[in-house]
Amino acid sequence: xxxxxxxLATRPDFSSEDFRDAxxxxxxxxxxxxxxxRILGTLWDIQNAKDIQRWNTRxxxxxxxxxxxxxxxxxxxxxxxxRLREEEEAALAEERKKNKAxxxxxxxxxxxxxxxxxxxxxxxxxxxxxDNEALTLLKSDNGQHxxxxxxNTRDRSTVIKDEDLTWEQxxxxxxxxxxxxxxxxxxxxxxxxxxxxxxxxxxxPWRRSTYNHLKQALLLYQxxxxxxxxxxxxxxxxxxxxxxxxxxLKRASDELAEKERSARLENLRQV
Length: 271
Known about the structure:
- It is built from eight helices and two strands.
- By secondary structure, the protein is mainly α.
- It is elongated.
- The chain starts with 19 loop residues before the first helix and ends with a helix.
């Protein structure tokens, strides 16, 4: 088997002293030394062309064998991955059957206000069994009047945003919401994460600060990050609330401090 690529071969100088004996084999009354050198060159060209053809054919055959092996390996791998996915899906389906609570979807974000004393008192004053059956007449966007359940028109203007709660209200709500999570079979690690999250806020040095914007920054951070967490569940951006992000917390503080400065300047202008 030829080891070197004949495409790279260079025809020897058959007129040189190295090939004197070869030329003598061809020299006779009609073929002189120069003609013998040309004959040797022609014979070499013919043989080299055949070598090149065989070489190229062999290279293509080897390349095709390599492609076939690669295709076979890829097909085998794809089949293994398909079977693995099927096994994983089957295992996950079985796991979901056994642990329905673990895979239950997380409810949408809910303001902490609804778990404060004020929010619960408002809920008690709203008799759903009666109001849900009551109808009220409203004018729709197209100008027509339609009857809709009175409960759908409930005023949400009284709902206090998380960042505007007092720390006392925050304490009321966080304890009750944790209890509600456990009652509704939230995944344990998610419940524990919220406990760590809210505890970290309660014990943070800013919580006892004499600067109001620092204390409010903790509540603003809580509101923003909890909403972000709910939106990220089930996506590649999912994250844990347990550890506070001090950089984001600092931005919340700067935002509130700037609002306070702007408000003071505006008050001075009005004096």
